[in-house]
Task: structure prediction
Amino acid sequence: MQGAITKPEKYQWFTGQKISDLLPQIETHVLLQADLQYSIIVRKLNNAREIDVLQFSLAKALSDTSSVDNLLLQPKDKIIIFTHSSSVIEAKKEQSVNNSIELVKNDNLQTAQVSKLSSFSRQRLLLPVMDQLKRQAAVGQPLQLVEVDGQVKYPGIYPLVKNARVDSLITAAGGFQESAYLARAELTRNQIEGIAVKKTSKNIELASILKGELSANILLQSKDRLNVHKIPSWSENLTVELRGEFVFPSRNTIRRGETLSDIIAKAGGFTDFSHQEASVFTRVKLK
Result:
């Protein structure tokens, strides 16, 4: 077992063993930062080290031992439990959020916690799995990888698991962002026609998938790419800050098309003590 668990190590296998036998309780066996919806089993197929990948929900497997997610294990299976962080950057962001609630005064401890989180990220733990899937791809044995981009929490490339559907890929990517446009997504697929490969696109109704409609939740194929669009005209809360001799110096939310004079008007204008000719305007320029 590997990843966001309290004891990542090798365990003795026995006939009939399931995931719940290794992790009987979430509270005592799984780290707080673990993603309980997306975990995988890497299964060796032969002596050539070829593998297969199975996906399951740890939450479902442990809450209901009769669930299909409580998979039957085989010798040499590797169970991987991920955190909610996809990379080192995400781990640092998550740690910063935690620090805003409970301050961590020991910098060395904080660095160690971030390093531990990032080592269990999707990016790091999936890398050797995807490398092996690339090596074993050949004529008649398509590359077992798919990709998701756009308004999901962790866009990227993921293993194509057995019987994977669109919702499996969304779960692997951590689910939708708040800005996801659920009316339509685009699935791009390589279609072989004779000796040529043609790219085709198919519209996917994500809202129908969330309702459990199987017809919309199609099976995925090798090298499928799902693009989840953003809601038209969606924008995050962008702000500018006014300091100094304004009637109401504050941080203000801006809308598209607003100018500096509009923001100054929102702040009630200048005070009688302002020296407008000496005003300073600063902007962070992204490269």
Summary: The first helix runs from residue 19 to 22. The first strand starts at residue 2 and ends at 3.
